[in-house]
Description:
Elements: E1 8-11, E2 19-27, H1 30-40, E3 48-58, E4 64-67, E5 72-77, H2 89-102, E6 108-111, E7 115-118, E8 121-131, E9 134-141, H3 168-184, H4 192-200, E10 209-218, E11 225-233, E12 239-243, E13 246-257
Parallel strand pairs: 2-3
Antiparallel strand pairs: 1-2, 3-4, 3-5, 5-9, 6-7, 7-8, 8-9, 10-11, 10-13, 11-12, 12-13
Helix pairs in contact: 2-3, 2-4
Amino acid sequence: MTLPNCPSIWLDQGLAAPLPVFLPGPGDSALDAAWRLLAEAPWPPFASLLMESQSAGRGRGGRPWFSPAGHIYAALLLPSRPPFAGPGAALALAWFMAEALAEGGWSLTIKWPNDLLWEGGKTAGVLLEARRGLVLAGVGLNLGAPPPGVERGPGQPPATALPGAPPPLDLWPELVKNISLRYNSKITPWTMAETAAAAEKRLWQRNRLIRVLGPAAEPPAEAGELAGRLTGLGHEGQLLLDNGGRLYQVWSGTLVQDMDENNDDR
């Protein structure tokens, strides 16, 4: 396979086929750099790019992402098959990452749909971008201590970082190998339903009162937010919210902690 002209390392131990990790150094964003390299030559699934720092990193909704050196800023090419094909792809990757990090001793929860929390604080996020029939996952993971100046809104978990984590160039390849091996070692094809059932066990605020801002829901929300009890996940990774006995399926939105947890009338 012809690969882009970029410094790289190769992951091969225990894998059916070697996987490249491209190392462009500092730059604008891992996602932008990955798309440029993909325009030069194709990548195999789970090939990735690890950037030293980002000058133009971004999060959900195009929000800027402060990205100093010392943390993981990566782009990962996802397979075009379940559970990475469909609306639950970001949730699926968050679960695969949580399982991989658990083997290193870090037990994380999933803040639906695409964040990972360590001891109640946000330590990682996933952002998906699709172009030309391909899906790249942008991954940000705080190591050691969260970057300074990170502000979180009301009801949002504070920023945190994995304590005692190895440097990005040591940790990221191990995460990629673990994710690839977990995905490819399964005898029967993965489904989103089984991935959602597994992710539900790590779900932040499960069985507690929450609010969803700007929800896309069935039935449609009557206002700009929904409030209720988070009961779990549906077969496609959608959030299930019970509002006074009425069950909503939420497909997108921003999840925030209910500030009046003692109010139990919903």
